[in-house]
Amino acid sequence: MIELKSAEEIDQMAVTGQFVGELLAELSEVAAVGVNLMDLEHHARRRIAQRGAESCYWDYAPSFGRGPFRNVLCLSVNDAVLHGLPHDYLLRDGDLLSIDMAVSIEGWVADSALSLIVGTPAPADLKLIEATEVALDAGIAAAQPGGRLGDISAAIGQVAHSYGYRVNGEFGGHGIGRTMHEAPHVANNARARRGLKLHPGLTIAIEPWFCASTDKIKFDEDGWTIRSADGSRTAHSEHSIAITATGPQILTHRPSRGATSTDPTSRPTTTS
């Protein structure tokens, strides 16, 4: 069942989204060569507790995974792209780190992710991250009232292919609102003008993720961490959005470097 949210409910989701965006921006500043992944995890735990928010990851137990997830962040490094378990690992120069988080504030959820280079960037890694960001922008731009869900998916897939990347169809975006994962599934590749009609009040998380040289994935023994099957680098970008009568509204916009507040209605800035 798909629940369309009222304008007031979307405003409440935007409050959560602002916090998520600000915390992701903080974490991207903290991540540096020599920083332990667990330092990022504990930083996020403190900030979530201070805000009176609740992590949607803690105790999450889907059909995959080995036991309930007992962290508030997914931290995926290099060839890991989704659901990476925070662990005792010191970030190294040139690491490609993806940070994903979802929290609930007063019953309303927001979910977002970004990828970044720690230390010295490799051009190929910058291109990969840029592709996910451009695909995210394209998917958001396609989320117009009266359109179709396939328009979003097709826009993402077209960007991936234009950069020379293939798209895995096993994991993608999703509905969001009162819980982290709601209907509908938002694929990262599909045919335009097909699928669910997009009505004002629909709230979804759009999350393109690509591997540098494959569309196949594998799971670590922990049952959570998803990696590229060939060991190539990966990247992931995500925003929660609402479809309104006038177009898409980004709920998890991140502040610019050094900023302290966000406008949840504004477009994200794509970096490269």
UniProtKB/TrEMBL annotation:
GO CC field: cytosol
GO molecular function: initiator methionyl aminopeptidase activity; metal ion binding; metalloaminopeptidase activity
Entry keyword Transferase: no
Compositionally biased spans, kind Low complexity: 260-272
Entry keywords, A to Z: Aminopeptidase, Hydrolase, Metal-binding, Protease
Domain (Peptidase M24): residue spans on this chain: 12-244
Endpoints of the signal sequence: none
Requisite cofactors: Co(2+); Zn(2+); Mn(2+); Fe(2+)
Catalytic activity annotation: Release of N-terminal amino acids, preferentially methionine, from peptides and arylamides
Residues annotated for substrate binding in this entry: 83, 181
Enzyme Commission code(s) on record: 3.4.11.18
Known function: Removes the N-terminal methionine from nascent proteins. The N-terminal methionine is often cleaved when the second residue in the primary sequence is small and uncharged (Met-Ala-, Cys, Gly, Pro, Ser, Thr, or Val). Requires deformylation of the N(alpha)-formylated initiator methionine before it can be hydrolyzed.
Designated name of the protein: Methionine aminopeptidase
Gene that this sequence comes from: map
